[in-house]
Amino acid sequence: MSVDADIVWRGDAGYEEARVARLFNARRPDRFPGGVLVAQSENDVIAGVRLARERRLKVSVRAGGHSWAAWSLRDDALLIDLGAMREMTFDPDTGIATARPAVKGGAELAPFLSRHGRVFTGGHCPGVGLGGFLLQGGQGWNSRRHGWACENVVGIDVVTADGELVRANESQNADLLWAARGAGPGFFGVVTRFHLRTFPRPAAMTHDTWMFELDDLEALLEWIDGLLPELDRMVEPVIAATRLPRPEGPPVLLLHTTAMCESEAEADHVLAPLAACPIADRAISHERGPTTIEQENEAQALQNPEGHRYGVDCTWTDARARELAPLLRDLWSELPTEHSFSIWYGWAPARPLPDMAFSVEGRAYIATYAIWSDPADDERHRDWVVRHTERLAALGKGVYLGDTDFTHRPDRFLSEANFGRLEEIRGRRDPDRLFCSYLIREGAELNAEPMRRPSTASRR
Length: 460
Ligand SMILES: Cc1cc2nc3c(=O)[nH]c(=O)nc-3n(C[C@H](O)[C@H](O)[C@H](O)COP(=O)(O)OP(=O)(O)OC[C@H]3O[C@@H](n4cnc5c(N)ncnc54)[C@H](O)[C@@H]3O)c2cc1C
Hints:
With 460 residues, the chain is of the alpha+beta class. The protein folds into 3 domains: 2-81, Uridine Diphospho-n-acetylenolpyruvylglucosamine Reductase, domain 2; 88-201, Uridine Diphospho-n-acetylenolpyruvylglucosamine Reductase, domain 3, CATH 3.30.465; 204-403, Vanillyl-alcohol Oxidase, Chain A, domain 3 (3-Layer(aba) Sandwich). Helices cover 27% and strands 23% of the residues. The chain contains 12 helices and 19 strands. The protein has helices spanning 15-20, 42-54, 105-114, 130-136, 143-146, 174-180, 217-227, 264-275, 293-303, 321-333, 378-393, 416-429; strands at residues 7-9, 35-38, 59-62, 78-81, 88-91, 96-99, 118-119, 153-159, 165-169, 190-197, 199-200, 204-213, 235-242, 252-261, 285-290, 309-317, 341-346, 364-372, 396-398. The strands form 4 sheets. An 8-stranded antiparallel sheet has the order 15-12-14-13-17-18-16-19. Helix 7 packs across helix 10 (321-333). 50% of the residues are buried. Bound molecules: flavin-adenine dinucleotide.
């Protein structure tokens, strides 16, 4: 088969570069694919899948390379790397865009769509690839209003486990589309193109940003948590604990909200509840003004620098401010490095999700990112993230695949019913288990009910 020549096999010159050069996390796991195929076209993907089947190799996939846990690296598999396939199209009559999975949602798709006066619910960080992002759900700009980014995937082109290229949408191969909206790295096919619903570019994107001392955590969280149900879904409130604005001092709390509005008057209206902040007199600073997705992306890229080592974990929770605050105070006061940060992202009120694999969310999303440079710190920082998130997960409902590493805690990420349906579809679509699927700790139960430990909130 001709594609064989384009595969860098283990032991070949260039193997190590092909294995890890496109991974965002500089902490590279010791997992070694049998070979890496850098696909230039759909035909290469088809040939790669068929070759893997012939040689009894499993298949793993890489799009943007941003998975924190480096899910694309699987021992002995044929890794199909989609990094060389990058086209995007836009149809002004339908508002539908298409993009290859390795296209970066913020750095590439956003400016492309902007030239057409459109936006997509792309990731907060500009470098994230659409492939992993969309398959696992996709928490992007304006998600409280327009939903998970995968809800705006109207079709996919997929190379199936049989090595056939098919289109999946609501009217054909609908089971594949259902699975592709939430299965994440457990998807059983190679998506070669996404078809995406886009939205008009908002005329007035506005941010409202307060900075507080860590001492104000309880009052701040109590206030914003209570406000959530009445905040317009256009408003996206995040409290971030970070050292970046003041590297030498203790961490600060940024309450950063964005609203993508049609006019300044609308922005004033939906952001008005934030003006009534009960601890306004204690704020270190407060700013409100125009912003753009590009500016917000830039700020995210500064917080998540390239070439660093990352340890990341998360939980969804319905727990209220009073229960969470002591745990968050312990966590947030210990941010270990200048770039490390942790967020509470207000997600409520719940809205009914469409019928798709993605099915676990909660009132708030808590995610923590330890970011460092020295390999000698790997274990210490990684343990710090996992230990603190485990305490929060005791009050949790499950995890979001995007900030998860199942080799540590394979908590629930799909409802039991949807997990069952996903496995049923896998059984039909990939009966021989050609695709690697989820990477979990040996012997661990996948999609397990979050561990109910006694609340550690009272330990302080
Ligand atoms: C700096 C940074 C910021 C982030 N910010 C956000 C954010 O704002 N919102 C959010 O939701 N997530 C965010 N994430 C998480 C990110 O979305 C996930 O890690 C996602 O998996 C990255 O997608 P990727 O294609 O770049 O990664 P990859 O590592 O290439 O892909 C991850 C896995 O997804 C599967 N996959 C990818 N593409 C395909 C395909 N075409 N066909 C079949 N399977 C495929 C494969 O199993 C692959 O190993 C962030 C990550 C980083 C590093």
